[in-house]
Amino acid sequence: MTAPPTLGNVLAPMTALPDAAIAASLRAGAAMLPLYHAGTAASRKSDGSPVTLADEVAEAILTEALAAAAPEIPIIAEEAAAAGHVPATDGRFFLVDPLDGTREFLNRNGDFTVNIALIEAGTPIFGLIYAPAMNALYVGAPGAGAFSATVAEDGSLGAWTELLVRPAPWAISVVASRSHLTPETRAFVDRFVVESFVSRGSSLKFCEVARGAADLYPRLGRTMEWDIAAGDAILRAAGGMVTTLDAAPMRYGKRDQANDSDFANPHFIAWGGLTPLPAALSA
Question: Of 70, 258, 259, 281, which has the most beta carbons under 10 Å away?
Fold first, then answer.
């Protein structure tokens, strides 16, 4: 259960963090799967999004493990933040989404993930995405690389495979949200020559771009920082990027309590081997 050694090196002096995050994510996934297979009820948060017992169980596992591994680093976790528990975000902090893709979890289509990201000075420096129903683990740290591994039934990891975005072909492959595909997103995609268009749930869309299976993931709809920070870190580590619609890199730790939009993201585009095109972004 050991991460590629380059990840720990780039996070010095926190060289044990990748291993601790991997172990915590596997425990969280193991706790969620029985609820996933049996089916579980959902309640609604104040923003209308669903939450289940699996969200709460996984978040407790993750936050306890991260606090033990790095007690000096604050943790911004989705369900705690929804309840108003938000520590200061100066310096380094974690962004945790214990169950990204709750709708996919409830629909039992497998497209849900555990997300952990470490942020420093507004930039993601480590990301982990674990898809328990697919036995797939993705990790990355810009400067150290991005990698995937298969998780066996006993929790052991297969060999690590390096992830790299592919050079963009003339006709690109687009991946977009299964549950939140907006007309604005469709209009943006229409600016490109598209060979294939695939809908996926959760942060797995970032993984599709990072591993070279897709070239573009546009999201012109509401998301929160914990939804995307891990995928952003992995994609950056694989040679891609995530930008706002004005081609600026995505930043994290945004606070706007007055407008009830703490940690809310602007619309964004995840790019693989494509160079962000000003004409496409401004059209």
Answer: 70
Q: Which residues pair with 217 in a beta bridge?
A: 270
Q: Which tokens hold the place of 28? A: 């969280």
Q: Residue 225, SS3? A: helix
Which helix (H) or strand (E) segment is 53 a member of?
A: helix 53-69
What's the CA gap between 186 and 145, in Å, rounded?
31
Per-residue confidence (pLDDT) for residue 257, from 0 to 100: 56
Give counts: helices (H), strands (E), the chain: 9, 14
Task: Give a yes or no: residue 95 inside a domain.
Answer: yes
Beta strand 172-177 pairing with 194-200:
parallel
pLDDT (0 to 100) of residue 282: 57
Total structural domains within the chain: 2
Q: How far apart are CA 113 and CA 154, in angstroms?
A: 19
Q: Above pLDDT 70, what percent of the chain?
A: 94
Structural domain ending residue among the three candidates 162, 192, 226: 162
Cβ-Cβ contacts under 8 Å for 38 (sequence gap 6 or more): none
Distance CA 135, CA 53 (A): 21
Q: Are residues 201 and 74 in the same domain?
A: no
Boundaries of domain holding 209: 172-282
Closest by CA position to 119, among listed 4, 239, 247, 255: 255
Collapsing DSSP states into helix, strand and coil, what is residue 186? Answer: helix
Tokens (6 digits) for 92: 């380094």
End-to-end CA distance of the chain: 46
